[in-house]
Write a structure and sequence with these properties.
Layout: E1 2-5, E2 18-24, E3 27-28, E4 34-42, E5 46-52, E6 57-62, E7 68-73, E8 79-85, E9 88-96, E10 105-113, E11 115-118, E12 123-129, E13 140-146, E14 150-156, E15 162-166, E16 172-177, E17 193-195, E18 198-205, E19 214-222, H1 237-254
Parallel strand pairs: 1-2, 11-13
Antiparallel strand pairs: 2-10, 3-4, 4-9, 5-8, 5-10, 6-7, 6-9, 12-19, 13-18, 14-17, 14-19, 15-16, 15-18
Length: 263
């Protein structure tokens, strides 16, 4: 993790899975509002999530050709955007939406959005969950490219965590949580998700009680959806409970779709 304060070294976002740019809006922007600037570099092309944790704050990011690559405008809560960046130097301008706000502290979280390839053998996402704070819920977004469709179960190592996978139209195709871990739940009792080839967005919501950065893994494991512990394709009581829980989770995820900006 890189914790970068204004007037220090220029961070390379490609060298850390999580960076936080923070400072104070002690300058005056072109529109007359209090503002500040942060410079960072990218050494390897990738997709990055930018999240401003402060209310009524505007963020504009430009490349070394002075072209705007993404903007963020927060209102009553934290806001975020996603941008695909190539190698180069970038400048983030953070300004107050309210000109009368005066000098304020700000923090801009940056995480690299992983691009995971899913084959018939499954796939694994490795990440670091950040504790929520200063308006930041710690939500992460990553891209899953399914090359070979099939049926999968999902395992996440982080307790009390919700996740949802959405297709390109924002439809939730898989969702679950680790809020009630059951050591007696076998592989065949776990929910099965059928994924067609295509690109999906994975949203991971860590627990609000997290106190420090924690590494985690989320794995998609292939399985035959026709198999059951009894060898019959019948819905057991636990399968019914799990299915009903998946329905509730899909409803939750569909009501909280993330928004992103791509360049």
């Amino acid at each position: 993790m890189s914790d970068v304060t204004a007037a220090t070294y220029v961070p390379n976002l490609s060298s850390s899975s999580f960076s936080q740019l923070k400072g104070q809006t002690t300058k005056i922007g072109v529109d007359g509002a209090n503002a500040d600037t942060q410079t960072f570099t990218v050494s390897k092309a990738g997709e990055f999530n930018f999240k401003v944790n402060d209310t009524f704050t505007n963020v504009e990011i430009r490349n070394d050709r002075n072209e705007v690559v993404t903007t963020i405008r927060s209102k009553e809560s934290a806001s975020d955007a996603t941008a695909r960046l190539g190698p180069g130097t970038y400048t983030a301008t953070i300004s107050q939406a309210n000109r009368a706000a005066g000098v304020r502290d700000y923090s801009l979280d940056v995480t690299e959005r992983q691009n995971i390839l899913v084959t018939g053998a499954g796939a694994t996402l490795k990440g670091t969950a950040q504790p929520p704070g200063n308006g930041d819920t710690g939500v992460q977004k990553h891209t899953f490219n399914v090359l070979q469709g099939g049926s999968f179960t999902a395992n996440i190592s982080l307790p009390n965590t919700r996740w949802a996978m959405m297709d390109k139209d924002g439809k939730v195709v898989a969702a679950s949580d680790s809020g009630k871990p059951d050591s007696q739940q076998t592989f065949l009792q776990k929910p099965t998700y059928k994924l067609e080839p295509g690109q999906y967005t994975m949203v991971v919501v860590p627990p609000s009680s997290m106190k420090s950065p924690t590494d985690f893994m989320l794995s998609l494991v292939p399985r035959n959806a026709e198999l059951s512990e009894t060898g019959l394709n019948q819905e057991s009581a636990i399968s019914k409970t799990l299915r009903e829980r998946q329905t509730r989770l899909r409803q939750w995820a569909s009501e909280a779709k993330p928004t992103s900006t791509r360049v």
